[in-house]
Every structure is written in C-alpha cells, then in structure tokens.
Amino acid sequence: MKKAFDAAERHQGNYHINSFNGAEVSKYNFGFLNKKYDTVSDSSTGEYSSELIKDVYVSSGKTKAGFISGDYHSCFASDFSFFVLDLIENNYVAVNEDGCLDNAFYDFVSAKGSLIAEIYGVNDPELVKIFTKQLILILKSMDHLDLSLGRAKVTSAFTGNDFTLSLFRTFWNNISWAELFPSLPELAVSLQKNRNVLSGMLLNSQYPVHLEQIGFDFLIKSNVRLRNEMLLISFLDFSVFSWLNLFGFIKYLDQNCDRCVMIDMTDYGRETFSAL
Fold it and tell me: pLDDT tens digit string along 27-60?
C-alpha cells in the first residue's frame, strides 16, 4: 500500500472505506460488525458456532437489510455473502475508475471477516481476499450488487426459496469460470464445459477419495487435453474444489502426507448434485 489509512471518515452518515494500512485496521472498530461478533459466541462454552452465525444473519437479513426471506444452508459461501452484503449496505464502499472495488476494501474484509473465515477453516488472509473477489463477481452476476456508480450498492433482495442453491447455480451455470479463475482461463473454460462429467464423477466416487484420482479420471472421461496432469489437479483443487468446499458440498480430510489430498462428499453435496 502506498498510503496509510487515509480515509476512514464518515460519508453521508456512513463509514467511508477507501484505503488503509492493514496494520492500523484495529483502530477503527465498526459498531455493527462488533455487535454481530459479540452475539455469535456461545455464552456457555465461549466457542463460535456456524449455527449461531446463521441465526444472527437471518435476523439481520429479515429485520435490517431485508435481503433474504427464504432459507439457506449455513456455509462459508452463504455466511460470507451476508457479511459482505451487510458491509456494503451499511458503509460507503468506493468503486474505482475501472469499475472494481479498491484493494483496500478486500484488506478490510479480510481483517474484519477473519472470524467467519476461520470457522470454516479459511485461515489465510490472502485466500480470504481471493474468495471475496470471486464472491463479489458471483453476487454481481446475481444482480445483487451494482458497481457502476462510483459506489458499491446492494441493488435487490433475494426472493427465492434457497439462497445457497441460487448462489451455487450461478457459480456452476451462469458466471464464466475463466472470469473467476483468470490464472488459467483456457483450462477454466474447458473445466466448465465438462462440469457435468465432473458432477457425475463426484456422485459416483467411493469416498473418501484422493483428489488426484478424480483429476486423472476426469482427464480420461472428459474432452480436456493437458500434457501436465498435475497442473490440472492443482488447478482443480484451487478453483472448483475449493468452492465446492466453501459451499459445504465436499470437505477436505486431514492427512499426514502433504501430497495426499483426500476429500469426502457431504450429504448436502450428494443431495444438491443429484438434483442438477
């Protein structure tokens, strides 16, 4: 960052988040965030619970932001969506000349959203920033965000039956994976074109299964042609499978071997992919 925290001032009754040094973020405690954080710890155990977070954000959505009226599955993707939307709804979040949110916004989200992220095992601040950038693209594709007027705005409430499924369908069917995962855009396009092959493999695999095995089988059964097989497996892990984990469809299993990445599919994942 070239500048220190130079714009944490009130703007039209809201906080103006523009640019700051991450080391100084703790000086600025945003009341509505701290209040939510205080309510998500179990008073009897002192531990944080995703179910408590769900209760908090359903309450926030119904009574404060008016965003969600239906149900949703408590997972990183949903809970962090509500966190980001609430942050944008209650603060002045500037949009730069390129129509993008400033990097300082993502620094701020990473710092203030660490509690929710850690509950779901996302302990790396840089990963939180990456997932937030991808989540913004998904929410924008769902027409819940407008970044065209110099200030980010929440433009519409969710009126469907299940927010998590709607969020996932946008990720799976509507938004370009090349846009979400721009490091290897051609491979991302190939993966998305063959996503039905991948979903079939996920449903029919014997769990727990090595991620590497899914990658090799996917190369055989799909039209993806890649000389470097390990590149595909690494990209699958970082892109699609990371998001399937964030949606609560799969879970990574702890392994002693760093190279042995094992996954399991959750009941919610089986239910969702069976209905695709």
Answer: 222 233 333 333 333 444 444 344 444 444 444 4
Q: DSSP assignment of 213-236, as one string?
A: HHHHHHHHHSS---S-HHHHHHHH
What is the predicted pLDDT for the residue at 179? 96
Q: Give CA–CA dist 145/162, Å, rounded.
A: 18
Q: Which two tokens stand for residue 45?
A: 């155990």
Give the confidence band of 201 by pLDDT, cuts at 50, 70, 90.
Answer: very high
Phi, psi of 95 (to 5 degrees): -115, 130
CA distances from 91 to 9, 17, 19, 36 (A): 10, 7, 14, 15
> What is the value of pTM for the model shown?
0.76
Q: What is the DSSP letter of 19?
A: -
Q: State both tokens at 192.
A: 């998305």
Give the whole-angstrom CA distance, residue 60 versus residue 75: 17
Read off the pLDDT of residues 163-184 as tens digits, 9 standing for 90 and up. Answer: 899 999 999 999 999 999 999 9
Domain ranges (residues) in the chain: 8-168, 178-274
The token duo for 203 is: 């449903």
The CATH number given to 178-274 is 1.10.10
Measured CA to CA, the distance from residue 76 to residue 182 in angstroms comes to 22
Q: How far apart are CA 153 and CA 77, in angstroms?
A: 19
149 burial (CB, 10 Å; 0-12 / 13-18 / 19+) is exposed
Per 3-state DSSP, the chain is made up of helix, strand and coil in percentages (nearest 5) of: 55, 15, 35
How far apart are alpha carbons 85 and 164 in whole angstroms? Answer: 14
